[in-house]
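I am still learning, so can you show me any protein sequence you like together with the matching structure tokens, please?
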Amino acid sequence: MKLVVVSAGLSTPSSTRLLADRLTEAVRESVPGGVEVRVVELRDLAVDVAHHLVTGFPPAALREALEAVVAADGLIAVTPVFSASYSGLFKSFFDLVEPGALAGKPVLLGATGGTARHSLVLDHAMRPLFSYLRAVVAPTAVYAASEDWGGEEGLGARVGRAGAELAGLMGEGAVRGASEPEMPEVVPFEEQLAALRVG
């Protein structure tokens, strides 16, 4: 199985990448037979993302990263929090994913920030974004504030639970690229009324 990890951390070293690595390891431990992992560092693709947004043509490295995300059996997406939301680079990257390409794809969400007050970004910004993309989001998302890195107990338990959930979703083989459900034929309202009168 293929697992792609998208990290939007901007610094080196990055707490965002550190969280992404911890989540990756938790998934690895929960998948029998292991997983093939590819990490996409958005920091390295920032200029390519900007060029693609302006020109509509992705440079080779960005195109390969987008193709890897679409082809993955599971996705881990981690961003730092800026102004109470995901980073602009994180959003710009996922804006470039073709509509419907993440439909049914299992996704594990993570975010990092300086204070626990920003933890709501997971449910108020990230979950809606991936719901719009029609991905299957793991129930447990992981937020790591600065103080969490010192108290391993709480963070470690959340990371382990989240990793096991994503591994379970990947094992279920969630349907990727599912088409829209076929809509039943619409009967005009006048015909429906006429049928009621006859009865």
In short: The chain has seven helices and seven strands. The longest strand covers residues 74-82. The chain has a mean pLDDT of 90.
